[in-house]
Amino acid sequence: MTDTIKNTIENFDYGFVFTPADFPVDQRKQATVNRILNNMVVSGQIRKISKGRFYKPKMTEFGELPPNNYQLVKDLLEKNGKIIGYLTGYTAFNELGLTTQVPFALQIGVINEKKAIKRKFYRINFIKQQNKITKENIYLLQLLDCLRFFKNIPDSMPDETCRRLLLLLKELKKEQREEIKKLSLKYTPQATALLGAMLETLNLKENTTEMLNTLNPQTFYKLGISENILFNQKKWNIK
After folding, report:
1. What is this structure's pTM?
2. Are 195 and 147 in contact (CB under 8 A)?
3. What number is the average pLDDT over the span 78-106?
4. HSE value, Cβ hemisphere, 13 Å, CA-based, for 110
5. Residue spans of alpha helices (H) in the chain
6. How many other CB atoms are found less than 10 A from the CB of residue 22?
7. CB neighbours (10 Å) of residue 78?
């Protein structure tokens, strides 16, 4: 059995996170597989990131490469073929070009709230998502999360962040624009207001009435964006 496991691991990509269930072995022998894998960890052949989760490390001239963020948390994003979460926060800020900082913590959007956990060198926090999460809307949810946490994007200036988000929103298809407007109604008022202002900046004829009507006219959002970038801030109570 040891040879079978080692040969299977040889075919895995570096950084691919696997479990005892990923081996062509009788399910009744999972405990034995787990023992063999733990022995391989002790001998330095593979690494362990959490209980029952392992990966084959890749060495470079700069040291050992860890698994990418998706591999580290993929079991928290999908279960039995169903989407249960998505990477957001610092990971999204980085991937969407809003910051160059490498994530030092991971945030996952989920329907049901969970307590933070530690995995390998990361602390993983869970952010409650009010909308249903699907493969098709994850990108839109990530954009809305950027609007929600606009002031928390590290190593960035409000005007630069706004310009980048305007560019990303401009690239959305008509169907996506309609969808993101609906999704925003279950977000924080700041996210809704910022989205409305940005969509109108991109298209004066954009229908944002429903979004505007959900906002409290007595609430203001201090974001520090220049009026020459977001011209209609007064309408949306943005300062």
Report:
1. 0.89
2. yes
3. 91
4. 20
5. 2-11, 30-42, 69-77, 90-95, 138-148, 158-170, 174-184, 189-202, 209-213
6. 15
7. 13
